[in-house]
Design goal:
Elements: H1 2-17, E1 27-37, E2 43-53, E3 63-67, E4 69-71, E5 77-79, E6 82-89, E7 92-93, E8 96-100, E9 104-109, E10 119-129, E11 133-135, E12 140-145, E13 158-163, E14 174-180, E15 189-195, E16 198-203, E17 212-219, H2 229-239, H3 241-265, H4 285-293, H5 298-310, E18 314-319, E19 322-327, H6 335-345, E20 350-353, H7 358-381, H8 392-412
Parallel strand pairs: 1-13
Antiparallel strand pairs: 1-2, 2-10, 3-9, 4-5, 6-7, 6-10, 8-9, 11-12, 12-17, 13-16, 14-17, 15-16, 18-19, 19-20
Helix pairs in contact: 4-5, 4-7, 5-6, 6-7
Length: about 425
């Protein structure tokens, strides 16, 4: 037993003699907010925050989150102004920068290039904001979360002083507040209207991490100018500009399509369709095929060559397996066919379609394609209309009735031998 007592004594002596290791105790010693409310509803705020840094969470400085975006009772987006103006650390100017968050702005105090030595520091941050007041039938009110609830370390003491415009008797000021985490209704604070248009709030015990101080200060109507209807509309348009632009764009597109559908999208009036065995006046078979297919192919050329022969302007014959085109009577042709014949024959009286004449044939085909596109493409691709002087419904009816004629050409017309 004596040995046990001696061993125990040695152990206690060793523990007492062993070096002790300090645990980092970063915290906010005090958080004081000075709020000046102007007659137009704007607010100038100075926050004085005294912290202890131990190189853990506070290495380069601290940051402050400010919610600026929320939804009103009607579900409309609202964005209040937030304008950082100045920052000092221990009365010396300190750099800062901001970053957009999902619902507001984060302000970083200090810079990455500066590492704080362990110790106590006092930050003073000035900023301007607006649209923070509530306007009710019998009074107006400032409802304000003084500290925010995002701090990861405790706040030993939090306080706020509010200065209102005009000279309001302390008896006409309504003071209320809450302490604790978000949504809590704790009452660990004191509130005092200590002068005209002036009130002071202060916590009565330390706030744990993620706890804060929220105040509510009511005052008579007319002290601060309520926003006019015009101002409310301007705010609404500015806050919801993106959504309104999207809605306006959708309405514009819908209106355009309704107009186009009303103009050309309706089906033609029902009635008897009578087949035509000749193409509509001034429009060649190749042009009709181009419009029906909404594009050009070699059959457009073949149809116009055959039609030129039918009109007597050329003769087509079989030249030992190759087709030969010969100039015939000086018949009048539509412009598209006349250009096609001219490009194929040139100054010659006859031309044989064979591989050796590939260059001339390609030039003629390209010219024919370009001529049809120039005359008809815009009519049905952009404006959904027919040729000049012809309503779209009439054009569709003409094309539909001419299909029988095109089938007749395919089945019964051939190059003469």
């Amino acid at each position: 037993m004596k040995f046990a007592h001696v061993a125990t004594g040695w152990l206690l002596a060793a523990l007492l003699a062993a070096p002790t290791f300090a645990v980092a105790d970063e915290r906010i010693f005090s958080f004081h907010s000075k709020i000046d409310v102007s007659a137009d509803g704007g607010m100038d705020v100075t926050e004085t925050i005294r912290v202890r840094a131990e190189g853990q969470a506070i290495r380069h400085g601290i940051y402050r989150d400010f919610p600026t975006d929320y939804r009103d009772r009607g579900g409309n987006a609202v964005r209040v102004a937030f304008e950082p103006r100045a920052l000092t650390r221990d009365d010396a100017s300190e750099p800062f920068h901001t970053e957009r968050q999902s619902n507001g702005v984060r302000v970083y105090f200090g810079s990455k290039e500066t590492t704080l030595a362990p110790g106590e520091y006092t930050y003073s941050f000035d900023y301007h904001t607006n649209r923070q007041l509530g306007f009710f039938p019998d009074h107006d009110e400032l409802y304000w979360n003084v500290t925010g609830n995002g701090w990861d370390f405790p706040i030993d003491a939090a306080s706020a002083e509010i200065a209102l415009p005009d000279s309001i008797s302390p008896t006409h000021l309504r003071l209320d507040g809450y302490t604790g985490p978000e949504g809590a209704k704790g009452k660990a604070y004191t509130a005092n209207a200590d002068g005209a248009s002036h009130a002071v709030f202060a916590t009565t015990h330390a706030l744990a991490p993620h706890e804060g101080l929220t105040i509510a200060l009511g005052f008579p109507k007319g002290v601060v100018a309520a926003p006019t209807d015009r101002q409310r509309v301007a705010w609404f348009l500015g806050d919801n500009a993106g959504v309104l632009a999207l809605v306006a764009g959708l309405l514009l597109v819908l209106s355009y399509y309704l107009v186009q559908w009303s103009r050309v999208g309706r089906d033609p009036r029902p009635g008897t369709i009578i087949p035509l065995y000749e193409p509509p006046a001034d429009h060649t078979p190749g042009a009709l095929r181009y419009v029906e297919r909404m594009g050009w192919d070699d059959r457009c050329v073949a149809a116009d060559i055959v039609d030129a022969a039918v009109r007597g302007a050329i003769r087509i014959s079989d030249d030992d397996g190759d087709y030969r085109i010969e100039r015939a009577a000086n018949a009048e042709l539509p412009a598209t066919e006349a250009r096609l014949v001219a490009n194929l024959l040139g100054s010659d009286d006859a031309f044989t379609l064979k591989q050796a004449q590939h260059a001339r044939i390609s030039t003629a085909l390209d010219a024919h394609k370009a001529a049809l596109k120039s005359s008809y493409a815009d009519s049905f691709r952009k404006n959904h209309g027919g040729p000049p002087g012809m309503r779209y419904e009439e054009w569709l009816d003409s094309v539909s009735r001419s299909r029988a004629s095109q089938e007749n050409w395919r089945k019964h017309r051939h190059f003469p031998h």
